[in-house]
Amino acid sequence: MSLDIVTIPCLSDNYIYLLHDGASGVTALVDAPVSDPVLEALASHRWGLDLILLTHHHEDHIDAADDLRRATGAKLVGAKADAHRLPALDIAVEEGDTVAVGSQTGHVLSVPGHTTGHIAYYFPASKAAFTADSLMVMGCGRLFEGDAIMMWDSLRKLAALPDDTLIYSGHEYTNGNIAFALSLDPDNAELRQRADDAHAARTAHEPTVPAELGLERRTNPFLRAGEAAMKQAVGMPGASDVDVFAEIRARKDRF
Q1: 131 and 92 in contact (C-beta within 8 Å)?
Q2: In the list 78, 207, 211, 244, which could disulfide-bond 225, CB 3.0-4.6 Å?
Q3: Residue-number span of the structural domain to which 52 is assigned
Q4: pLDDT in tens, 105-120
């Protein structure tokens, strides 16, 4: 059985996720910017909350963690490397560790770049990766603390997951990210179709997240920095992959 995954929109453009294992009744939350929508979703499903899985230390991902822990008794899980700037952790994890959500096993991946302590959670049996602000649907996070080498290595690690992995990122940025991608690759038919699909979803007030990793690899410019066509598109045909990634990230910052 796969996890039941409930997407909770909050703030202006954040997504947080409830993960429920029906076999055991165990429920986890990925990130905790706010409490009320989470408590409402738990009540509507008649679920408790056992774990809060934090991805990184930014306020729009952790602000309500302590409130939710007090309200539910959930244990707080986060990066050992960032324990000094996260709410007090009950379980500190690092690359290679696993987190059990009932019968489901989540693998902890170190994915620095947006922040130096950013982690992701990959649940292979559910074909789901919770990547927050590292790999984002049609984009990647800004390099607030890490550098291009760090983020490119993180993206390559995530890109190595199976094609049918669903990428659950932390924000609804897809339309803006696609507009940027089209500025680099305007003749890409699959990318134009993604633009149409994303626009239709948002017009219907539906999320564009998650997205299949295989589709991301074909259309997300940040994952395509190693392709000859993308290098040509940014005028860097002989450059290294990481230098092309750095150029794409810099252009997105100015877009």
Answers
A1: no
A2: 244
A3: 4-254
A4: 999 999 999 999 999 9
Q: Any idea what the CATH number is for the domain that residue 82 is in?
A: 3.60.15.10
If DSSP states are collapsed to H, E and C, what string results for the chain?
A: CCCEEEEEEECCCEEEEEEEECCCCEEEEECCCCCHHHHHHHHHHCCCCCEEECCCCCHHHHCCHHHHHHHHCCEEEEEHHHHHHCCCCCEEECCCCEEEECCEEEEEEECCCCCCCCEEEEEHHHCEEEEECCEECCEECCCCCCCHHHHHHHHHHHHCCCCCCEEEECECCHHHHHHHHHHHCCCCHHHHHHHHHHHHHHHCCCCCCCEEHHHHHHHCHHHCCCCHHHHHHCCCCCCCHHHHHHHHHHHHHHC
Check: CB of residue 220 under 8 Å from CB of residue 227: no
The separation between CA 130 and the C-alpha centre of its own chain, rounded to angstroms, equals 5
Tell me: the pLDDT tens digits for 245-255? 999 999 999 99
Counting the structural domains of the chain, the total is 1
Whether 144 contacts 114, CB under 8 Å: yes
Measured over the CA atoms of residue 178, residue 182, residue 185 and residue 190, the dihedral's sign is: positive
- Residues above pLDDT 70, as percent of the chain: 100
Q: Do 126 and 4 touch, CB atoms closer than 8 A?
A: no
Selection from 46, 244, 34 nearest residue 149 by Cα: 244
Which among 38, 159, 25, 27 is positioned nearest to 151, based on CA atoms?
A: 159
pTM: 0.97
What is the length of the chain? 255
Please give the pLDDT value at position 1: 83
* Cβ atoms within 10 Å, residue 97: 17
